[in-house]
Amino acid sequence: MENQTTTVKKTPTIAIAFAWLLVSVPLLWGVFQTLAKTVALFQYNN
Amino acid sequence: MSALPFLDRDHTIAPPGYSRWLVPPAALAIHLCIGQAYALSVFNLPLSRLLGIKESLPGDWGLTTTVWIFNIAFVFLGLSAAVFGKWLERVGPRKAMFASACCFAGGFLIAAIGIYLHIIWFLYLGYGVLGGIGLGLGYISPVSTLIKWFPDRPGMATGMAIMGFGGGAMIGSPLADNLMKFYATPTSVGVWETFLTMGAIYFVFMMFGVFTVRVPAEGWKPEGYTPPVKNDNAMITTASVTADEAIKTPQFYFLWVVLFLNVTAGIGILAQASPLIQETFLLKGITAPTAEQTKNAAAAAAGFVGLLSFFNLIGRFFWSSLSDKIGRKPTYMIYLGLGCALYALIPSLANAGNLALFVGTFCLILTMYGGGFATIPAYLRDMFGTMQVGAIHGRLLTAWSAAAIAGPTIVTYLRDYQINSGIPKAQAYSTAIYVMAGLLVIGFISNLMIKPVDSKHYYKDETAPVAPPEPETARVQQGATA
Description:
A: 1 helix, about 65% helix, B: mainly alpha, Growth Hormone, Chain: A, 2 domains, globular
């Protein structure tokens, strides 16, 4: 039987890292903004 | 022939070597945008001052008018998810995501015109109806694809996407706040400009998801993954059930009840979280708070709501990932059983005056509220197979729409009833919380009733055109990476 060799072009790691960075940055910004508000709860003293 | 062929399913089939780890960011790009819907309340005050700028004038919109934008959007989320689910399975995720982006951004555009002209119907039809359709399409569009890319970890995969929906509110609220500050002038509160800008930003961001998403090639499977030949877990089917057949099974309705009750309990508390903590703890015993005390309590309550949103987000990823290890049914037993116990504990914690335990308990409850959303697609996959899981998920999301109305209504009504009966405000939530605990008991029983789907419902006609074949049953393609 004849062996078939095919070239497989794998997704570059840099492309995967870029995609994750693109969605992580706004998410982390949103999380930071939200958690910054929680300081008022822990410092609350009426 | 399609007008935009690059959106067709055939053009989205992943080539050998395509990494499946590009698919969750594509899904997140959609969910991080549409999750903004949960932050719509940030516009309540500015929308009520469009004419008066500094304060509301008689012609300005009241909260009872603007709240319908949110309600309509969530009703259309459920309806569009239910109606367009089968279309999504046929055309693939890219076209559905593109349609979602057009509807969601188009909704912002029409709403911006409505705000500029001060015509509320533009907001109802724009953000409410068109935006709501975008929400529904966007919510379900990546779910089925993720399950097919991650047959070994479906809970984790869908949890990542649905976590994005929770994160969307965290981005949408401060983004809107900053944009309104940027656009505000002495003659404008800057809302229509903010809507226009957010619509444009979200459209561009969603396009990243549209052009990144791929469906696995026929027969693809992750490297090193061996699909079970003979299923040793009766709660995970290797067969498939169509969406039309799924709604004829009792399992669909038990799951509908489980989702409805879990969401009703969580959303009811989340919607009232700010007044709840202020009346139960922060302003307890203060009959006439000063302006300073009111301001401090409001800031602390906003912090409490933010903390709950954060744990809601964490729970979506944590619990859905855990469900891959311990199984879907046990995971929901924890949500509903532990959730019930924690709800029942809350009035005692409030009476004991232990703020840290009170807050901690609510945070844990909210992880399970988020987890309930994130784990349901994998539960559906276990019950009905992957063939039309997106369409079945879409139909199940009507439970969310119903709960979004039922939860806040129950809590508000019972709180008002107790206050009118002469009960102090600090104790006015006890009955509502015990009712929520009771609802979770019903949900627990409903979850216990779930058994494997009867084989008479299994899909048998292999010539039907609707669904792509399941990766587990087809020929294995080499070369794709895990």
